[in-house]
Design goal:
With 294 residues, this protein is α+β, with helices and mostly antiparallel strands. The protein contains twelve helices and five strands. Helix 2 runs parallel beside helix 6 and helix 7 runs parallel beside helix 9. The protein is globular.
């Protein structure tokens, strides 16, 4: 009589919570043992490897910085804040070594989606969590489509993961890398005009007028846009690409109330926009081709 074969576990039967806990504990202990026996390189080598990865090409370098708009409670004005993006957090996670990071969606109540991010430094036995929520309704209260909710959830997870990573690894340790990346993407004084033209054309292709670009920078003319301004614009492009901002949010024209707080500056911008629209309509009526960026 042939010997009986061992029973094959049913893949559809869920594993008991206690067993999952044991497996998770064993996995973490194994990774911590590895981290202790294979410590990360010195900070100088980590920074150089991060920089090499980040500036492998222009697109990757630009994706490492982002810019967001935030309202200043004291002045009532919008201000631009900049920081390292999820791309740089991903590069950091790989090059820092002995890190365990991830994120997942934990809630969708029909109005907002919430994600939890986690980062664990296995070598230093430090862990941090980050919770991020994003709205999934339009201004009129109607919900996003299913596809847009999935896109928003993915963006929310990326932000949560980035925030967790930069809580575990102090930004001060990688700030030199971040600053050098900014210099690479903006260029220098000799390349300013060429780079500025390229960035402006990029936003023209998104349907953003020149006056709206100048408005978000609070500049009067294209020629006054400097290297730091270019860095902010590149960061806005990254935020739009990563779904942290929409084009409309990034280049929104403030309301009348905001306009008064800004001393009439936006009134001038609106007047210029109206003049440019009239110019386009006049050129179209006459069969002329509108100027680029108009």
């Amino acid at each position: 009589m042939p010997a009986e074969l061992p029973a094959v576990p049913d893949p559809l039967v869920p594993i008991a919570p206690a067993a999952l806990e044991i497996m998770e504990h064993a996995q973490i202990k194994s990774m911590m043992d590895w981290a202790y026996s294979h410590p990360r390189p010195e900070i100088g080598k980590i920074r150089q490897r991060m920089l090499d990865d980040a500036i492998v090409d222009e697109e990757t370098a630009e994706s490492c910085i982002y810019t967001l708009k935030r309202r200043d409670r004291e002045t009532g004005k919008d201000k631009l804040i900049q920081g390292p993006s999820i791309r740089l957090a991903e590069i950091l996670t790989v090059r820092w070594q002995n890190l365990r990071a991830g994120a997942r969606t934990v809630d969708n109540d029909g109005k907002k989606v919430t994600a939890h991010g986690i980062c664990v430094d296995l070598q230093n036995n430090v862990s941090m969590f980050a919770e991020v929520s994003r709205r999934i309704t339009h201004k009129d209260g109607s919900p996003y489509s299913e596809d847009m909710q999935l896109v928003t959830a993915a963006a929310c997870c990326s932000i949560a993961k980035r925030n967790a990573v930069f809580q575990v690894v102090p930004f001060a340790l990688i700030k030199p890398v971040y600053e050098e990346i900014k210099q690479v993407v903006t260029g220098n004084v000799s390349t300013l005009a060429t780079k500025r033209d390229k960035i402006f054309k990029r936003f023209y292709s998104m349907g953003v007028d020149k006056e709206r670009i100048l408005g978000v920078l609070d500049k009067e003319a294209v020629e006054s846009v400097n290297l730091e301004d270019l860095s902010l614009l590149i960061g806005l492009g990254t935020a739009i690409k990563d779904k942290e901002l929409t084009v409309e949010e990034a280049f929104a024209i403030p309301s009348e109330e905001d306009e008064e707080k800004r001393g009439g500056r936006m009134r001038v911008i609106k007047e210029r926009l109206a003049a440019r629209r009239a110019q386009r309509e006049s050129a179209a009526a006459g069969g002329e081709k509108p100027k680029e960026g108009a």
